[in-house]
Design the sequence.
């Protein structure tokens, strides 16, 4: 809940559910990343909707209790506590309400590799660049996107980044 509040306040790019899932599993709770991502999206939607409607803690808990009867009592208590402590800090401007986002770039990792051989070809000696992008989607979920490029593809990729950098410098 606290990471979601930080994300909604633009203090962090998103909630890294894979890392959070690992921490939760280490504490002895069985959950998978997919289920945790769904929970994160629901709580994020809940907090952003409550902020947009300026709900008090009691209004949020009452509305939540009326809408969802299967939510465990301790989950409602956590939501109540976090919203009571930090809910007022979420600010939703009119521009943010009317803007759709495509995600936010968080990190980029790359490595240069050479494929030496395969089961169908004994001598490849084929260089490639492997790239992993860490991206926070609009709901705050952080995911990794990986791809490989040939050297000519990488040169084109690099050229396009140089062009973007040049355009950004003029802004």
Sequence:
């Amino acid at each position: 809940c606290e990471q979601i509040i930080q994300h909604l306040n633009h203090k962090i790019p998103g909630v890294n559910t894979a890392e959070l899932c690992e921490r939760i599993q280490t504490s002895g709770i069985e959950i998978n990343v997919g289920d945790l991502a769904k929970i994160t999206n629901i709580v994020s939607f809940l907090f952003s909707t409550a902020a947009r409607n300026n709900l008090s803690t009691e209004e949020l808990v009452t509305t939540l209790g009326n809408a969802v009867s299967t939510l465990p009592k301790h989950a409602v208590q956590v939501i109540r506590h976090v919203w009571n402590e930090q809910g007022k800090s979420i600010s939703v401007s009119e521009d943010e309400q009317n803007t759709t986002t495509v995600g936010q770039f968080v990190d980029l990792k790359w490595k240069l590799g050479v494929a030496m051989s395969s089961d169908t070809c004994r001598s490849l000696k084929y260089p490639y660049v492997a790239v992993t992008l860490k991206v926070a989607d609009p709901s705050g979920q952080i995911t990794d996107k990986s791809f490989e490029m040939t050297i000519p593809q990488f040169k084109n990729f690099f050229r396009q980044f140089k062009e973007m950098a040049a355009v950004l410098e003029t802004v």
User: Anything to note?
Assistant: The two ends are 37 Å apart (CA to CA). The longest strand covers residues 104-115.
